[in-house]
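TEACHING EXERCISE
Course module: macromolecular assemblies
Task: Read the component lines below, then compare them to the predicted structure of the full complex.
Student: A.B.
Group: 4
Components provided:
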Amino acid sequence: MPLDILVVDDIQESRRALCALVTELGHSAVGVDSGLAALEAVRRRLPDLVLLDLLMPGLDGFEVTRRLRGLTGGRWLPVIATSSLQGDEHVIRALHSGADDHLSRPVNPALLEAKLRHYGSVLGLQSRLASLAQRQRDMLDNILDPVLTLDAAGRVEELNRAALALTLRDGGPLAAGASCMAVFGVELPALLAQRECRLHGASGEAFPAELGLSEWREEGAAHYTVVLRDLTERRQVERMKDEFLATVSHELRTPLTSVMGALGLLAGGAAGALPAGALPLAEVARRNGERLGRLIDDILDLTKLEGDRMALHLRPQRVQPLLEEALAANRAYAARAGVSLWQEPDAAAPGIEAALDADRFLQVMANLLSNAIKHSPAGETVRVSVHHGGGALRITVRDRGPGIAPRFRARMFEKFSQADGTDRRAQGGTGLGLYITRMLVERMGGRISADDVTGEGAAFSVSFPLASTLASTPGSAAAPALPAPPALLHVDADYESRARVARWLTPDYRVAGAATLAQAEAEAAHTAQTAPLLLIGNPQSQGSADAFCAGLRRLAAGRPVLLLGDSVDQAFGERLGLPWLSLANGGAAELLSVLQRLLAGTHGSGPPP
Amino acid sequence: MTGLRRVMCIEDDADIRLILEFSLATVGGYEVLCCAGGRAALSQAPGFRPDLVLLDVMMPDLSGPETLAALRKLPCMDGVPVVFLTAKAMPDELEQLLEHGATGLIVKPFDPMTLPHDLLPYWEHGRGGRGA
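Instructor-supplied answer key:
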């Protein structure tokens, strides 16, 4: 790489000779005759390198070297001092003044060439690195979303240009060094658990933002890079969607009201008696009109639940009156199907309270009861029982129908799932009922499950945390206790992956997460009261996989351990003698079933079947 | 004889008005006056002197709650029960409607064969209120 070289020498003859030599070597040279002239030249245009005579009248080379350092704007300007002095002392002094190198006069052309080539290649590397860094900086600055990097204590280390448009809670400008509390209004550990936050814009206005967080490590220290996305517009769209759906629902119901009304009047004989053959036809129309109405309800509920926009009014209340209301509301339907409804008597039931939304609880029970009635043969009984214990209440609805097909079990709480595609028309369902029921139960802090009693019909249970037990009677002690969900500790360096697994396993498990083994140990000690029953670990980005797995085993102290991650496979699992599950081709259902087997002790070391 | 005679229906959809008229007059035997909107209802209520009002919630021009507020100012409406007809589009708003001074709610689609009977409890409730 040809260099722009400034040659500083007060003696014209040697200056010219050096310039000529530099030019001959393929570089360009500018000569000046004094220290002051050299500083002036550098101010005008920064050269790549300076060849500087140490012994000059006025400002000598040592002083010039010192002053040059202030003129380069942080850039490295190599200075090679030249002199005909004997001994090393002046060389050492020159280097102390800030020179990079020394050449003895008369200059050996071969040595000069070698040195210039060396500095040329170092300067070339340096400028490549600088342009690379600039490129990265430009990319970061051109991301439209604010991007912040926080250190382990939650201090802002770096931020991009979009983040500069944010302000702190106290109205001050956002800059490096700001605390997590000042920016987000919460401490770092709380922030890590959030998916959303509220930020303040340039004029101090608050707005909701989505929080994409990734944790990474540099020399053992944790850093958190946060990408923030303004949700204002999305919220607006959601609101418009809600309004639109409300309107659509109203618009759909209005004609349905006329259709159903006209049919009802015709079938009821209000316009004169219908011929005998017309009645079944009117009944077909009426039944399907009702189904259409249910579909409209379900789709509305679904949209609100999925968008997390259904307002629930949870308050502690007695469960028994609600249960009786639900049973009463479904008696007519049961009677039409020739099925009876029966609640198993329990002396403690009237006193049981749970925090519920009454309307939504009734909807859940209506769904479970109508499902049970729908699948019961005429003459059978649908039984409802209430159990409580272990801080939870469980309501079970049991029918004597054909039971749940094994094929359907895995997806019965999913959207648009029905036991059988052909069944849908026969039973008049929408395929949304159990899915909406599950969402409602979970939103009220409960869980839903299907008990497997092959050949004895189906049994669905919902459980809710108990608000308190009023007037508990002696008989209540005998009520079967409901175990709390097992605790589980998930060690994974990737935050997203921890969040995903937690979503999958809640509420069947109480999931605690840790990025590293060290954090996991702290977490395990912290939650000694609710010691995890099993551990899940992802060896990716944890250093030595063997050491990580050994640490995991030590921490587990005999409790089950599962290796989980994209990088684990059969060979890996077998080598370490631990059960494993690859997420490359498995999801929530696989994980839940492996965990169930691990807890039951039917899944020892080795790969899953 | 229950004593409930005159029912005023306020509903913007002509087909639903027809169903209501059929249900309440032909099936129920009441004297029925159907109005297409709140303004018509306000001008006709004093002449008709309804025993009970059935009022649609979502209407253009004057909404159900607005119509209710205006009706309540008429002397002839003193103690007259007003029952909302709603498409149940917004479950969270049902409670609000009752707070607006409505006596009750009937959810669409309704059963026209039982509607005349379904109104009776509301009328009883309203009559009790008038006596107090």
